[in-house]
Amino acid sequence: xxxxxxxxxxxxxxxxxxxxxxxxxxxxxxxxxxxxxxxxxxxxxxxxxxxxxxxxxxxxxxxxxxxxxxxxxxxxxxxxxxxxxxxxxxxxxxxxxxxxxxxxxxxxxxxxxxxxxxxxxxxxxxxxxxxxxxxxxxxxxxxxxxxxxxxxxxxxxxxxxxxxxxxxxxxxxxxxxxxxxxxxx
Length: 185
Ligand SMILES: [Zn+2]
Hints:
Blueprint (H helix, E strand, L loop, with lengths): L2 E3 L29 E10 L6 E10 H10 L2 H14 L2 H7 L4 H4 L15 E9 L2 E3 L5 E4 H7 L5 H14 L4 H4 L10
Bound molecules: zinc ion (ZN).
The site of zinc ion has 8 residues, from strand 3 and helix 1.
């Protein structure tokens, strides 16, 4: 496995240290062989350096797989098609060799610079205390989220919102004006 240190961007907002537990099953994540995903949604304020973490979590592969199975086949294939059609595969492969922080500077799909994204989400695939660079970390802008939402069934959106509501009770002002956040584990 190509690997790297986990950048601070993926530390838990609450503890300012690496995530230790799966949000769903509480499994300990920092054993060498344990794989998991980290997702973080961030809101940027135009013209200000301030950022807000809307939510962040780590989820083990078993729980991620369980959530993925709940997504309807139609929603899943529309989402996959969107990525196939919009993602620059060569760029994605190059990301394996770049420094992880380099990969988080712009949207993987739209190439929008991070400071120009009103909102964005970042994802990492980790194994124990290391970042798995075979599946390098990436950033998705709010614009991509907005394009993905109409491709999903109401049930999938409800399931995703159910997951968020179960685990987070974010400041409502952070949830405006783009309502549903996507969980792309
Ligand atoms: Zn779990």
